[in-house]
Amino acid sequence: MGGGGIIARDSAGCFVAARACKLSHVSSPKHAEALALREALLFAKDIGPGPKLIEIDEQGVLHSVQDAQEDRSYLSCLFSDCKFFLSQLENTSIKFAFREANRAAHRLARLAITLPETFTWLQDPPDVVCDVLVQDIL
Q1: Which residue has better confidence, 13 or 94?
Q2: How far is the C-alpha of 37 from the C-alpha of 94, rounded, in Å?
Q3: CA 13, CA 5: separation in Å to the nearest integer?
Q4: Which residues in the chain belong to E strands, given as ranges?
Q5: Is residue 127 over pLDDT 90?
Q6: Which residues pair with 21 in a beta bridge?
Q7: How far is the CA of 16 from the CAs of 27, 45, 131, in angstroms?
Q8: How many Å apart are CA 126 and CA 131, to the nearest integer?
């Protein structure tokens, strides 16, 4: 069992939306990060058109998704899904961000484990990340 946290912000860094995803049958931290990336790509599609930058703090997952060669690990189908979803999103990119820059997403990931199902916040952020969002803007 694991959790994924996704925070959507506008170009000024202000909150747009968030999602906490309960991830089942997770075999490793890399697997959890890949599942969370797939959820982030689906969430980016749900949010609608416009440029998007997805930040991930697992370099192995980032490399596997950005690499043109086919991945041959046990996560290859998951990486293929991510590559496909990314190709369907216009003006969307993925880059590495240090874990410290993803504090709000990690709080949501921990929250997701306690929730019965995936939960999405629109307009108002969940209380568990408000302080981090404010600190990030300042």
Answers
A1: 94
A2: 9
A3: 17
A4: 2-9, 15-23, 52-56, 92-96, 119-122
A5: yes
A6: 4
A7: 31, 14, 15
A8: 10
- The secondary element (H helix, E strand) that includes residue 72 is none
Q: What are phi and psi of 8, to 5 degrees?
A: -105, 130
Q: String of b and e for 28-64 (b: at least 16 CB within 10 Å)? A: eebbbbbbbbbbbbbbbeebeeeebebbbbbeebbeb
- CB-count exposure of residue 25 (10 Å: 0-12, 13-18, 19+): exposed
User: Quick one: tokens of 38?
Assistant: 């797939």
Tracing tokens 């629109």 back to the chain, one arrives at 122
- What is the pLDDT confidence band of residue 112, given thresholds at 50, 70 and 90? very high
8 A C-beta contact, residue 43 and residue 83: no
Q: Which domains does the chain have, with CATH numbers?
A: 2-137 (3.30.420.10)
- Please name which of 40, 17, 31, 16 lies closest in space to residue 97, comparing C-alpha atoms: 40
This prediction's pTM: 0.89
Strands (E) located in 24-60? 52-56
Tokens of 100: 């410290």
Assigned token pair, 89: 């999103």
* Closest among 7, 57, 8, 1 to 34, alpha carbons compared: 57
